[in-house]
Amino acid sequence: KAISPWHTGFPNPQVGTIDGGEHITIAGNRFPPDSIVTIDGNPLTQMQVTDTLITGLTPPGRTGEQAVMITTPSLDSGIFAGQFIYLSPADTILTGISPIQGRIQGGEIGKITGGGFRTGATVSIGYVDAANVFVTPTIITFTIPSGIAGKVDISVKNPDGKSIILSRAYTYIGPPTIWQIKVTEEENMTGGFSASSQPLIPVNPYLELTIDGTGFIQTPTVFFGTRPARQVEFISSEKLRATLPQIFFSVGPLDVVATNSDGQSGVLSNGVTVLGPIRIKSINPTRGVLGGGTKITIVCESTVEFQETVFPSRFVEDAKVF
């Protein structure tokens, strides 16, 4: 009764046959050495207890979900540790799939957990049969087939013809698309962001761009031509922020490429235009009073030659004059 509280994890596995005799593990901490684990009131056999782990064999049980409890003479009441599902020989159940999403090309290794799987069972993802299916009574592994972007059903079919489905349990993610790039300005007084519609940037910028599109996922990369962005911030599946490279090796129009962590890429051709170095065309007037205050107009050349090619050149917002 004076023992400290403890934390328990869910039992592993959480599915087994009504005959019992399957190894089960409960992870946690501060388990009392005299702990007793029961499933539907029946104790585990061959149970071993450490401070962080309880193992044993499941007792025979009734078909369906049954409570897993940890009791001990040291406490007034038991601790609920989760559910265990007893299956009859004819039952099949699906409890999960890993991973839950992937690229439309497929090719990743998938795993379905559950129970009642029979040798020779088949797996389909969105009505497309998976390859390299390996079956155990509680786990099926397979190679995920290619598919179409969106959520699809997972189906397992045993040799006796009985099937079970996890509805919309897997998501195919297509390549990202980029439909707009804007130069992000400083946050305004209301906390929002304004953006210019023309992605014209000087040669050595530290500017931040907002990239609008679809299908972005966590930890993407962004390239401007052959140069990677110095920093990419994932905002949502439809928005990224990217800090431009410090140095460009060329000027003029550049493709912008966003690549997701799954290797799929989206390209916006000529997505930004790197401006050539400014070339001053005229300054008027060229003289003024010592006290200052004279208004002057500076005009730059509209194009500049770079590596034997003519590119646009112009002033950008926040240009400074010294």
Supply database-style keywords.
five-stranded mixed beta sheet, mainly beta, 322 residues, Immunoglobulin-like, elongated, 4 domains
Question: What do these coordinates show?
Answer:
There is one protein chain. The protein is mostly beta strands and 322 residues long. The chain has four domains: 15-87, Immunoglobulin-like (Sandwich); 93-173, Immunoglobulins (Immunoglobulin-like, Sandwich), CATH 2.60.40.10; 177-274, Immunoglobulins (Immunoglobulin-like); 280-312, no CATH class. The chain contains no helices and 31 strands. The strands form eight sheets. The protein has a five-stranded mixed beta sheet, with no helix packed on it. A five-stranded mixed beta sheet has the order 10-17-16-12-13, with no helix packed on it. Strands 19-18-21-25-24 form a five-stranded antiparallel beta sheet, with no helix packed on it. The protein is elongated. 26% of the residues are buried.
Estimated share of beta-strand residues: over 45%
Strands, count: 31
Task: For the record, give the distance between the C-alpha atoms at the N and C termini, rounded to a whole number.
Answer: 78 Å
Unreliable spans are 1-7, 186-198
Total number of distinct structural domains: 4
Helix vs. strand class: mainly beta
Q: CATH H level of the largest domain: which superfamily?
A: Immunoglobulins
Q: Rg to the nearest angstrom?
A: 32 Å
The CATH topology of the largest domain corresponds to Immunoglobulin-like
General form: elongated
CATH classification, class level of the largest domain: Mainly Beta
Order of strands across the main sheet? 1-8-7-3-4
Protein name: IPT/TIG domain-containing protein
Keywords: Signal
Organism: marine metagenome
InterPro entries: Fibrocystin, Ig-like_fold, Ig_E-set, IPT_dom
